Amino acid sequence: MAAREQIIIALSKGHVLKPLPPDGGGQWGCFPLQQGESLVAYNERDVAALVMDGLIERVPDVGYILARKPKNTPGTPADRATSGEASDVVRIFVICTPKSGSSFVVTLLQGLTGFGHLSPRLGGEPMLEADPYLPVIESSKRPSVSQLHCHAKPRTLALCERFSIKPIFLTRNIFDSLLSMKEYIDKFPHQQVFPNYYESETEEEKRAYIINVYAPTFVRLAAGWHKAWKGQKAPIFWCTYETFFENPFLHARRMLQHLGLDYPDGKIQEAIDAVQEDRTTTKFNKGVTGRGMLSFTPEEQKRVIDLIDSYRGFDAREAGILI
To answer: Are strands 91-96 and 144-148 parallel, antiparallel or unpaired?
Structure first.
């Protein structure tokens, strides 16, 4: 009887998921928290992930029930920390400012290693900013490569430390990136991500939108990760678009060394050649360095520079977003 009273998941404040009575068909139900019962540290975002994974489902007038019984009952954070969870699974995080060549690097690493692709996010807009989500990382038991536009938050840095993740950070000259993003969403509409952009009537309005909406995300990403890199908050491999594509072989090999992976030079070059031929997967645009500055007026350039200068202590030239 005690086992049937065990709390499994806190669905929301004051409600828990636990077994139904013996005649409940072996499923689980949502119940109010009773006096003396303890909560497991799960929140509503965790519940959303369980729904997406097909573990639980919403039943009208009842709450959530399990679609299938979990193989293991979740423990408390302390239990999980001492459970001997595998940290030897190679998880590669390619974290980047958008339009910085990350699709090329991710495709290259997947092709070279044979690792699968993992999207460890829940919520947020993957194209702009979305944090890695712990339950997804915990459940991934196979080597993987992930592409992320996430900020250097303490919990993200702690997650990297916990799972021995050595992030690769990619960035680019900000004006080239701004122009590349504009050309990309002009060619491939993203109304759900940038709805107001498509209401702009002139090219000047479109450039203003890119500077007002996209540039702040870009600078915050670069400044935050640069601070973490300089402060050695995590073993970060810092690389710019310009540096990487000047010598893809050299920097691909350095990335692999950073990750503790070793492949023959011939195999590295073959993987690079294969990715260079696949311009659809890599979202290749123009690949010309320096043309972005010429596409913005001096007044627009000043707005971007003023934005960067508002991050005190951030060396944008060292970071590679200004050349």
So the answer is: parallel
Task: Note the pLDDT tens digit of each residue in 163-197.
Answer: 999 999 999 999 999 999 999 889 888 887 788 89
Run of H or E residues at 56? strand 56-59
Write the pLDDT tens digit of every residue in 9-43. Answer: 545 545 555 555 555 444 555 555 555 444 443 45
Query: Token pair of 8, please?
Result: 């499994």
How many other CB atoms are found less than 10 A from the CB of residue 238?
A: 18
Rounded CA-CA distance 308/216 in Å is: 9
Nearest to 287 by CA among 98, 100, 96: 100
Domains of the chain: 3-80 (no CATH), 91-319 (3.40.50.300)
Residues in the chain: 323
- Angle at which helix 174-187 crosses helix 215-230, to 10 degrees, equals 140
Q: Which of 175, 208, 204 is nearest to 194 (CA)?
A: 208
Residue type, 80: R
Element (H, E) at 147: strand 144-148
Angle at 71 between CA 15 and CA 18, to 5 degrees: 20
How many Cα atoms occupy the beta-carbon half-sphere of 203 within 13 Å? 5
Q: Alpha-carbon distance 179 to 45, whole Å?
A: 35
CA-CA distance, 39 to 41, in Å (whole number)?
6
Six-digit token pair at 56? 């639980």
Beta-ladder partners of 17: 9, 30
Paired strand residues for 29: 18
Q: Return the structure tokens found at 248.
A: 């893809």
Place of tokens 């194209």: 127
- The pTM assigned to this predicted structure is 0.71
Q: What type of residue sits at position 110? A: Q
Round to whole Å and give the CA distance between 169 and 218.
Answer: 13
